[in-house]
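From the pipeline queue, job 12 of 40. The input is one protein chain; the requested action is below.

Action: predict structure.
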Amino acid sequence: MGPAIELSSPEPRDRTAGYRGLAAPVSERAAEFPSAILFIVSPGLNLQIAGATLRTLQLYLLRQVVATLVMTLLVFTFVLLLGDVLKEILGLLVNRQASLGVVAKSIGLLIPFIWVFALPMAMLTSTLLVFGRFSADQELTAARASGISLVSLIAPILLLSLLLSGLSAMVNLEWGPRSRMAYKEILFKFTAEVAISRLLPEGRHIRDLPGYVIFIGKNHDGDLENVMIYKLASGTNDVATIHAARGKLEENSTNQTYVMHLYDVNGIRFNGDRAAPISGEYLTESFAVGERKRSDVIPISDMTFGQLRVELRELENNLVRTNARGGQPGSANVHLEKERRRVTSPVRVQMHRRVAYSFACFSFTLLGIPLGIRVQRRETNIGFAIALLLVLVYYGVTMLGISLDQHPQWWPHLILWIPNLICQSFGVWLLWRANRGL
């Protein structure tokens, strides 16, 4: 017989071995399945890592936007300053009418006024450039793959745009107009102006002529454009409103008066309860005027917001008092109300323009971020070209509203808000699509 074969029962199987392996410390199994263990065993840690990644990306984008903003702000400020410097300041320096210190002070006073336009343009350009590169380099795709939404990425940049809008409000409402007037005062000291131009300055309501409120659109050394005269009730004079497309102002030294020759005239004269139309190709108005000082003249385009409110209140009070003295009934009151709106419309337009411009930074940011993502270009010149096109459209509509300031029936002060409404609505829609990856 062959050798005996020993039959032995198998070793009993340890059914808990696998479970003991799963129960091993995370540190021992992390080397084998690091990401799975972190996600399954410690989801809180995974959220902490995602939060740190989000903050890193937010800080990265914010630094990029701020750096680009500073660069583009300097470029736009230099370009916009160049026109005023070459036109007004450089001539004084070349003719030795002003020193380098005066020129430097003049340029410094111009900067707050220039920032009214340069700051929104710089914010738009910086968002287009930064997010164009961010999308073209597939960084946005990587962030989305990590579960990070576009809205959470841009939250600090939107906050920055709101802060810049607040700064723009201070510049638009107060600092810009004051610096502009200080700049004009410096120029006035070194340049000789025609006496007639000082007599009837353009772009403001002149109320210190007895019995008159006069508005001159343009005054080229006595050649007038867009003339509006409101004759107040005084003595036997009737209340009247006169509008002329153009005019000519001349001095009558014999009678010590000034004669205004008006062309293409239309208007309304109120006599008791009757309102008679005024129309014709030619009309003259004469009035005596004393010597006026240039420092007392502030065009409404250079007034601060507080000064504009005072100007509007004084205009309305003068017209209300005139209406009360005249006792105009019926249809004459309707005509007077229309003329009141027409007289005060330029001031309202300037007030709304200041406030509307203050929101340009926020509007351009909302529009610039999704447009930069959709364009997906690294080239700087493409970003500048798109920014300039959008700026032309924005300020083109704004200029349309300002040009209609003598036509209150078109509500020009509300037209000034259309660019902000369009930019913000379109920007929110594009952001919604970009956030969904559409």
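Job complete. The chain has a mean pLDDT of 75.
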